[in-house]
TrEMBL record:
Family: Belongs to the globin family.
An MF annotation (GO) of this entry: oxygen binding
Lineage: Eukaryota, Metazoa, Chordata, Craniata, Vertebrata
GO annotation, cellular component aspect: extracellular exosome; sarcoplasm
Record keywords, A-Z: Cytoplasm, Heme, Iron, Metal-binding, Muscle protein, Oxidoreductase, Oxygen transport, Transport
Catalytically driven reaction(s): H2O2 + AH2 = A + 2 H2O; Fe(III)-heme b-[protein] + nitric oxide + H2O = Fe(II)-heme b-[protein] + nitrite + 2 H(+)
Subcellular location: Cytoplasm, Sarcoplasm
Protein name: Myoglobin
Function: Monomeric heme protein which primary function is to store oxygen and facilitate its diffusion within muscle tissues. Reversibly binds oxygen through a pentacoordinated heme iron and enables its timely and efficient release as needed during periods of heightened demand. Depending on the oxidative conditions of tissues and cells, and in addition to its ability to bind oxygen, it also has a nitrite reductase activity whereby it regulates the production of bioactive nitric oxide.
Domain Globin: 1-143
Entry-linked Gene3D superfamilies: 6.10.140.2100, 6.10.140.2110
Length: 149
């Protein structure tokens, strides 16, 4: 099974609760890297403890995971998906590119904890490789987009 097929197999499990899994990842990101929360106008002034029951976090978790699922399903032909993400995250949300490395590392960790049956060593390796490639492509798009931090 090639890398993207392995990834999509795990993703089918993630989709059983897309919003809940996205929510877990966002909360873990804010917990482990508190500076990331400051980028979200909706969440920056709310203490982390109160965000666990905040419906907007779950809604945004769904938004992020829907977009990431769209990337994964392209099986590598995701240039236009990444371009769209880079454009809004550079120009509208003004998110420094290294934040994508932070969130993808959190996703890897959360999936390994939540889905030990699906996240076999080869599946972890496949995600790790794919996320590294995606982050590096986003970084190139940021450079082309003239991102100023
Ligand atoms: C897996 C990586 C990510 C994906 C797939 C993703 C996807 C999205 C999508 C689909 C939206 C809404 C549409 C848009 O504006 O493009 C969005 C909004 C946003 N994203 Fe991301 N994102 C990712 C990572 C991040 C990171 C790491 C940060 C900051 C640390 C971030 C900050 C934001 C903010 C502030 C918004 C606007 C939220 C609002 O509506 O108030 N994103 N993201």
């Amino acid at each position: 099974m090639c890398d993207w097929d392995l990834i999509n197999k795990v993703w089918a499990k993630v989709e059983e609760d897309l919003a809940g899994n996205g929510q877990t990842v966002l909360l873990r990101l804010f917990e482990e890297h508190p500076e990331t929360k400051a980028h979200f106008p909706k969440f920056k002034d709310i203490p982390l403890g109160q965000l666990t029951s905040n419906a907007d976090v779950k809604t945004h978790g769904n938004t992020v995971f829907k977009a990431l699922g769209d990337v994964v399903k392209q099986k590598g032909k995701h240039a236009s998906n990444l371009q769209a993400l880079a454009t809004t995250h550079i120009n509208k949300h003004k998110i420094p590119p290294q934040n994508f490395t932070l969130i993808t590392n959190v996703i890897l960790k959360v999936f390994a904890e939540k889905f030990p049956g699906e996240m076999t060593a080869p599946a972890q390796e496949a995600f790790s490789k794919a996320f590294k490639a995606i982050c590096s492509e986003l970084e190139d798009l940021y450079k082309k987009g003239g991102f100023q931090s």
